[in-house]
Amino acid sequence: MEVTATWYLILSALLFTMGLVGLLVRRNPLIMFMCVELMLNAVNISFVAFSGALNDVAGRTAVFFVLVVAAAEVVVGLSLVVALMRRRPTLTADDLTALRG
Amino acid sequence: MIASTLLAAETTADVAFGTLPSLILVPLLTAAVIMLLPASRADYVKLAALIGSVITGAISIYVLWHFDVADPGFQFTAQREWISSLGLSWFLGIDGISLFLVVLTGILFPIAILTTEPHHDPKPYHVWIMLLMAGSMGAFLALDLLLFFLFFEVVLVPMYFLIGGWGHGNRVYAAMKFFLYTMAASALMLVGIVSLVFLAAGDTGGATFNVIELAENHQLSTLASTLVFLSFALAFAVKVPVFPVHTWLPDAHTEAPTAGSVILAGVMLKLGTYGMLRFGVYLFPEVVFDLGWIFMTLGVIGIVYGAAVATMQKDLKRLVAYSSVAHMGFIVLGIFALNSQGMTGAVVQMVNHGITTGALFILVGWIYERRHTREIAALGGLQKSAPLMAGVFTLVMLSSVGLPGLNGFVGEFLILLGTFSAARWWAVVAVSGVILAALYMLWAYQRTFHGPAVGENATMEDMRLSELFGILPLLVLIVFLGVYPKPMLDRIEPSVDALIEHVEERVTDFYEPEPNEVERVGVTGLIEAAEHGESGGEGEEDH
Amino acid sequence: MGLFAQTVVDAIDTPEVEWKMMAPLLVLAVGAIVLITITSVVPRTRRGGFPAAFTITTAAVAGWFLKVVWSGLGDHAETYGIWRRQWIVADALMIDGFTIFVWGVILLSVFLCGGLLDSYLRREGFDGPEWYTLMMISAVGGMLLAAAHDLILIFLAVEILSIAVYVLAGLHLRRSDSQEAAFKYFILGALASAFLLYGIALVYGATGTTHLVDIFMYRSTNAAGLSPLTNSSMMLAGMAMIMIGFAFKISAVPFHVWTPDVYQGAPTPITAFMASAVKAAAFAGLFRIMWEGFTYYVDDWRPVLSALAIASLVVGSFLALAQTNVKRMLAYSSIVHAGFILIAVYAVPGVTGIGGDDPSRLGIEAFLFYLLAYTLMTIGTFGVLTAAGGVDDANHELADYRGLSKSQPVLAGLMAVLLFAQAGIPFTAGFVAKFRVIAAAAANEAYILGAVAMLAAVVSAVLYLRIVVTMFLVGDELVAHAVTDTDDDAATDGVADETASNDHLGEASTPFGQVYTPKPLLLAVMLAAFGTIVLGVFPQLVEPILTDAADSLSTLRQR
């Protein structure tokens, strides 16, 4: 059976959904953070798949930009998580309740 | 006919940005000057406010003096581009309908400043008063729909601070209620205004907020104009206030400082009725013709309800406030009677109510200052300690009751006459309001000034000469406009007639319901006849 | 293989860069780098006023270049006519009136927030160049976003804009609230970016291009059956995801949940920056995409936008009433403002003119004017909050603002002006902005939308009045008592009268005895309030640039 672009797109959609659900369900800041990365990389798969199907290079170049952005987000996100964890080592997202109206 | 005269006014509109703008700019500048004065010098502040308002008043008198009696159109027009891409301009003008309201504003403000004293922080107080004056003037002068709305809305802010900052008792609540009620009601008016402008853009040749062009040219469908009219009417009805939406008024009036009450009753309520006349009837004659009965009914309910509730009030100021509801009911009735007598009467009554109720609020304010209470039950026998005040109060009260020979009579009589020919039974019910007015006013007077004077009532200080001097212009007007209303009617009538002609032009099956008698004698003659006929009958029996 | 060779050739043939047209953007970017470099090399410049002065000057210089760009914007002949607009950097950026205006708004925001930050950081003892550098970098992202016409570039711009602000929100090291806010902002911001990116991928898949003009043209070529991947449902899904991504950024209901928390937790000057520049840029991006990319899908996205607008107006204004924290109140009020701006975006299309007044022009002008007015009002308001909040942003409860008019009359007066402007009182920029939006809605026959907006404005006026009452009227209630009721029933009010008789609500009895209002902050707030009033009385001042923007946007474009 031939593996077409659709397969990759479905994989991408599945990974994206997993990331989204994980982000909404999990309470550990680090895991939530990983879910965000999962979502971004799921989109990368889509980009590559489209790029191949369209025979166009723009999609592949986009992936590089996304990788750079993801790296930048890792830096910021991890440092934020570290800053939070330093105050309370057993922190979960449910503990972030100081701001509530 | 009105179209041609109005368009003639249009062409001369580009003359100097002169007289009328100065009515707005002088108070504005005065406010700026007061802001620069040191807060510690209360006397300078008051003097500056007084000078500024008197100059403004003098300019309004100048306008009155040079007003062309024969011209029913807009005079002294001044126009300046504003946001041209949206068709907005600073377009000011004055006609017989707005003339006397402008003069009233010019007279009431100096008197309110002169006769009352803020109990703290005179500087911001007078700044707010002057801003209020600029805003009120602007609203009466604006001939650009949006400009009117701007002024109509902006006067809320100074009034809000006056009530909230210098009022009595539950003042913060009263100020909030006043502000939100009025703002909520006028919120939809803005939507109505822009809808009207864009729906009519095809008829007026591009979007314009010019009231004259809109009134002459717009061809809105019945549904659209009804909806837009209702959005206007709600805003005006709350401002007037018409019966079911009047509940902000007693609170605002009672808690406001005296000057605030005077201006609120004398000037700001008129914004509502003036708006109904200028922007309701003028822009949507068809709808007014169809739905006028609703407003007449509400007006009549207001008359009776206001009078009935006033009768039961224990607080003197609240009593005056409810009497305002009744009087404003008369004005609404007169406007929607849609004939010359009714509308002329409504305009006259607007002015008279401003004078009379303003004077009443000043008097009640003085009593409160001396006695620290407005409870009718706690007062009594003031006539003995303060005979001068009792005399003045009598005069003002009788004017409020509508005694022939005093100004209150002229307006009410004309309104009833107009209503009678337009809708007989409404007039019959409204007459009962006049009787009730006599009841609650005389009763209140009796309980306050007659009887034995106990405690502090016996030692209350009488009116000072300076106070008498302050209120004297109002007393003179009460008598003058009652005895000789002709000059006033001569200036109001042509504009009102032009407005009615406009209604007749726009509404196919409308003709002005007129009693034959009026056609022969004219309004002025009728008034004179009525006064000669009736004034002998009643007389001043209460002394 | 041939494809790869082609790509290499393309890559070597680098596009021409019109440096002059990008000058404002470059000045800010270079300024950010120079600032951090100078302060690293000469450590004593880290403290004191240097970073702020440098930032403000940079913003002012960039603003001056804005004028150069605008006057350099010659008439460019295109197929559809001659317009004052220009593609630069291989058609990736479009310089036109719209771009210049939004750049101006963002630079204004940097300019004013620079003043706020200086005062704030000195009070908190955090003064250093990082804050300013990050703010300028974020602003560069925002400026890119306003001009970008390529979806990939839009994504990058959004990220540059956001990542710097994630850090800024968490930079107050003493307050755990600040870090909590930063984390929430980060997680939801990243979620929004992921949605945006997925949307971009889907649109790319459906059209084979990421350039807005090509996406716009795609619909017409698609009709001729030229595209390899004809899939409009993929296109719509992508469009929806892009809209979700931006809805997070502009905090439209129901994607607003982070807004109150983040606005409350972030350092107040940063909140001002988030609410003004970040939001303005995000709106500009949304506007560009919707109006220039998805023009043909108007009937699909308009209902969504109007639903978002109504939800924002209603939910924002009513939830605001339940708040007791002033920063949260203003966060909800910013949601209401977002609803208004969404109406302007909604009102843009529909190119049938009525009586010579093209309604799409009105929408564009309303949109831009609202951004400017909102920026002024919101920075001014949060500026006052910066001063009034006290050290560590500790005093933001409504009760803390009691009697502010007595202890800080100037500050309270400015706050009142700004709040009344937000409520839409005439002769302020707030009114003109609301009026323009309502006019645009009416011109597009969206009467219901206009009515809902005005009613929401009334409901949110309650909120502004509550703050004004607390500042002005609650405090001097005691004074009024002391003056008028000297003789009778002084004891009825118990505690309140006791304080009144001791000192006329003296400085000591309020937390504002020691409110710290340094000059830069006060100047920034004054400037904002002054601008609010000037724009309210003379709204025609910005008319020429608005006309330019409307000219450019209400006409078809080509690459």
Describe the structure.
By secondary structure, chain A is an all-alpha fold. Chain A is 76% helix and 0% strand. With 543 residues, chain B is mainly alpha-helical. Chain B has a domain at 284-514. Chain B is 76% helix and 2% strand. Chain B has a two-stranded antiparallel ribbon. In chain B, helix 4 (96-115) packs antiparallel against helix 22, helix 15 crosses helix 19 and helix 16 (340-371) packs antiparallel against helix 19. Chain C is mostly helical and 559 residues long. Chain C has one domain. In chain C, the strands form two sheets. Chain C has a two-stranded antiparallel ribbon with strand order 1-2. Chain C has a two-stranded antiparallel sheet with strand order 3-4. In chain C, strand 3 and strand 4 (93-95) form a beta hairpin. Chain C is globular and about 65 Å long. The model of chain C is unreliable at 223-229, 350-357 and 476-513 (pLDDT under 50). Chains in contact: A-C, B-C. The interface between B and C is large, with 47 and 49 residues.
Cα(first) to Cα(last) distance of chain B is 51 Å
Return the CATH class of chain A: Mainly Alpha
Catalogue the unreliable spans of chain A.
none
- Give helix and strand order of chain A, one letter per element, not per position: HHH
The quaternary structure here is: heterotrimer
Give a short overview:
The complex is a heterotrimer of chains A (101), B (543) and C (559). Chain B has 543 residues and is an all-alpha fold.
Secondary structure blueprint with pairings:
The complex is a heterotrimer of chains A (101), B (543) and C (559).
Chain A: H1 5-25, H2 29-54, H3 58-87
Helix pairs in contact in A: 1-2, 2-3
Chain B: H1 2-11, H2 19-36, H3 42-66, E1 75-81, E2 89-94, H4 96-115, H5 122-141, H6 145-154, H7 156-166, H8 171-199, H9 201-204, H10 211-217, H11 222-239, H12 248-255, H13 258-281, H14 285-311, H15 316-336, H16 340-371, H17 382-385, H18 387-401, H19 407-422, H20 424-449, H21 456-459, H22 465-483, H23 486-506, H24 516-538
Antiparallel strand pairs in B: 1-2
Chain C: H1 2-12, H2 23-41, H3 50-72, E1 76-78, E2 81-83, E3 86-88, E4 93-95, H4 97-124, H5 129-147, H6 151-169, H7 176-207, H8 212-223, H9 232-249, H10 258-265, H11 268-293, H12 298-321, H13 326-346, H14 359-388, H15 404-407, H16 409-423, H17 429-443, H18 447-484, H19 495-502, H20 519-537, H21 543-553
Helix pairs in contact in C: 2-3, 2-5, 3-4, 4-5, 4-11, 4-14, 4-20, 4-21, 5-6, 5-11, 6-7, 6-11, 7-9, 7-10, 8-11, 10-11, 10-13, 11-13, 11-14, 12-13, 12-18, 13-14, 13-17, 13-18, 14-16, 14-17, 14-20, 14-21, 16-18, 16-20, 17-18, 17-20, 18-19
